[in-house]
């Protein structure tokens, strides 16, 4: 149930965002949760690390579900996402920041690539 104006704003932002913007929002969320997971591991707050790394995994599952396999790159992205999930599970299980940091770098690179690609799309197609 939505109780605060901020939650209403967030819901409205998601409901009115273009598909490109939604993907960027998913990357932003995954990046945020991986960073928080890394911080929690470093601070030895194990429960918080677990919660944040699982949230990042859930977002990567959503990114995988959003893939359109009529495009050849979708298979490659699916493999990358699968690898990132494996590394996040490894980071969470071993409470090791190295695999999570690797995933963070991949997410940052993929977000940047997505931003560049979405800038190549004609303005008339961005709202579709």
From TrEMBL:
Q: Does the keyword Nucleotidyltransferase apply?
A: no
User: Per its UniProt record, what SUPFAM superfamilies does this chain match?
Assistant: Flagellar export chaperone FliS (SSF101116)
Transmembrane segments in this chain: where?
Answer: none
Cell compartments where the protein resides: Cytoplasm, Cytosol
Q: Which NCBIfam families match?
A: fliS
Please give the PANTHER family that the UniProt record associates with this protein: FLAGELLAR SECRETION CHAPERONE FLIS (PTHR34773:SF1)
Recorded family membership: Belongs to the FliS family.
State the protein's name: Flagellar secretion chaperone FliS
Taxonomic source organism? Paenibacillus albus
